[in-house]
Fold this sequence. Notes:
Elements: E1 8-9, E2 13-14, H1 26-29, E3 37-38, E4 43-44, H2 64-78, H3 84-97, H4 105-117, H5 123-136, H6 142-158, H7 168-195, H8 199-225, H9 229-242, H10 255-278, H11 286-289, H12 292-302, H13 307-321, H14 351-372, H15 379-396, H16 399-418, H17 425-445, H18 449-465, H19 471-474, H20 496-502, H21 523-528, H22 533-546, H23 551-554, H24 560-566, H25 569-589, H26 592-631
Antiparallel strand pairs: 1-4, 2-3
Helix pairs in contact: 2-4, 3-5, 4-6, 5-6, 5-7, 6-8, 7-8, 7-9, 7-10, 8-10, 9-10, 9-12, 10-13, 10-22, 12-13, 13-15, 14-15, 14-16, 15-17, 16-17, 17-18
Amino acid sequence: MVFPKSQYQVTWISINHPPPNCANNHGPLMSSDGRLSVFHLIRRSRAGLPGTPSGAGQDGEENPAALAESCFRELLGRAAYGNMNNAVRPVLVHLDNHNLWDPNEFAVSCFRIIMYSIQAQHSHHVIQQVLNHLDTHKRTTPRVRAGIVQVLLETVAIAAKGSVGPTVLEVFNTLLKHLRMSVDFELGESSRRNSSTSVSSGRGKESEERIVQNAIIQTIGFFGGNLPDYQRAEVMMFIMGKVPVYGTPCHTLDTVKLGHQGTKRIQTMLLSSLIMVTSGFKSKSMAAALPPPFLDPLFSISLMEDSELRQLVLEILHNIIDRHDNRAKLRGIRIIPNVAALKIKREKISKQDVAFMKKHGQQLYRHIYLGCKEEDNVHKNFELLFTTLAVLTIELANEEVVIDLIRLAVALQDMVLANEENMPMFIRCGIMALVAAYLNFLSQMIANPPFCQHVSKVIELRNMDAPYLLPEHIFRDKCPLPDSLDKEDRLLYFQTSNMAECLAGPGYNAERLSIPYVPQVTDEDRLTRRKSFVDTVSLQIDIMANSLPDKSQLAEEITFETLKKAIDTTGLEEQEREKRRLVIEKFQKAPFEEIAAHCESKANMLHDRLAQIFELTIRCTCEALDTLALRLPAGVPVQLR
């Protein structure tokens, strides 16, 4: 049968021999001896309409496209697990031979047919086949790789939830490997473009690699969103383990070869994929959703001097912490006149979440505090910081956490007024606006009328005398900034004493408000506040070089002054202060079981030492008595006093 070339490209499906009518030859089609080979699928011409072909042609004859498609669907529906390779591989070979990955409309339609026709439990096998095919094309053009990844995205989107098989991490590992290779290709093209004269062609290849990278990120997100929560948590940990972070092992990403630009690109894309994976993630316990192996590297990235990376980290935290989808109601940093009208959804804080905040609360507060004063913060950073404080209040704040959050807000206000780090005026006003917006939200959430009255009074005075300290003004385009902030006008600022009086009733330990919040600077803070991963590695090398002993220092003459400096009391005070800080930090962050075990071990050690002392004392006494008895004449008694 021959059809006009303008309408169809004629093809056929065969097993060993071309069946005259697929519908009447179901018996031999899926037999174990016959190997399924799909040489071609009938494709509509580019002028034809998209969609499933109709059953009749123009002359009333059976449409060959419809015949081939129905035959192919029936073959796939009858395919057993052992025959899936024979069903999928010929399609992949056909798409390769006829260059149908770019454009990939026909490839997408073929795999839609495959995914909707096979049995649901075989979906993961098709996904694995496409992944293996992607590995064979790792050196081909970016558009071909992007076409294969987009087909993979379609297969993942169609796959039934929970039926992606046991090789979930292998799938993500393959995708992340191709993401890394794409970044390598992009950086290689960029360096060659800088050294050659063909700028336009280099930029074209670079943009094509971006297409591959975006397709991989979308696939990772859809794949992660298609998993049950317990598998999604594993995927989150797996992806976070691939993000280049100083101080954590990263075996698959050689950041020294990537350099600053490549490292940042990898970090941005992996965090973007984490945002997609965590979207819609609901965990009953924060401890399960944010374990230390996930939380620590995430917070390390939040200390990088890159506003975009910090924004991505905050969005990931929002996805995990906001379990009642309140973010949309809190969108935009502003003074909310009536929080009750937002109809915030919340539940009573569970014991597990209370324990989580006792263990990790100080870590959360510290990173919010440090993130606020970054000089490259923009409007979006302050919006996300406000949302972070708000969702913490909704999801994890009991009476103790409320006091801690107020102390944090007051510490931010005091930091701006002191201005010891000479922050830009926009950042100082932005922090003041953030504190005002949050305390306005918090006072209404805890429904404390005196507290609400104090906050409203300060906001009203700012509206009249210092509008640049409110979010509606400072984040407006071309907002005039003051030359300085008036520290003496106390009415423009939130007063700790007034807030303590408002919370003096039962339930809140208002006395803790008199204790200023001071973030505990840790090694993590000092080592991760770097503009790039490469700068951090370079700094580490410099420190190692400087730590080597110098011959001139070894030959230094010991004088009275050097001895005096060695025993200077200032150094001893600093050591004592550092010891106290470490002890306090340990008791704040360590779990109760660990502290109890530590105290028990100390008690056991003390008991052992006392037993040794008593044993030595008794032994010495006995030896002394024996010696004395030998020296005395016989019959003279030995008297003990």
